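User: Predict the structure for this protein chain, please.
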Amino acid sequence: MSGSTQEEEELPANHTGPKGVINDWRRFKLDSVHQTVPQSKRELLRQMSKPREDDKERLNRKMSVQEYEMIQEEDERGLKRYRKHCMQEMHERLSCGPTFEEVYELETGDAFLEVIEKEHRLTLVVVHIYQHGVKGCEHLNSCLDCLASEYSSIKFCRIDAVATGAAERFSPEVLPALLVYKAGELLGNFLAVTKHFNEDFFATDVEGFLNEYGLLSEKEFTACADDEAEGGDVE
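Assistant: Here is the predicted structure, written as structure tokens:
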């Protein structure tokens, strides 16, 4: 090895030929892992990507076992990160996100607006606007309690018409009302919804009505939990 003190210079990025391609690739690997590998490994990568001009032997040598193992290790880490990203996207598409399993009571108009505007973009929000003493409201509440346990990815809410701050828009004649939102957009606006049912109606009647409009997702399944367990060791 020469004892020369010549300054180290990087090979140009557009260096052609087999040697240039190899060194460009090594320099790319250095940039991609600079923030994640220990100092000792960064130094080795730096030496790999900055060969001395007077070190002809290093330029011409084959990749060492240590270099190969390090590159293979980083490639495996990158593959795991990619797999984890793909699984997260898949879980979002399957709505394996927030779960609720109950009907939420909204106390104010601000709470009503917040659940519409700030809920997860993939979460369907069903809001029951009711008033005490209005026929059908209490029974519809009971039906929604049942549906909330079966459709846990859907957020079921209820709010007293007076609490909305717009009681004049929700007179007893249009109650009970069901409003359905997703990503802040109104998908369904069903006023006096019980007129679509028999006097004695059940949760299955409400379920069938919403399904006619394609508003209910498939009932919950266990695949999401299985996928989480399988991918739990991915960092």
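The beta strands are 103-106, 124-130, 155-160, 177-182, 185-190.
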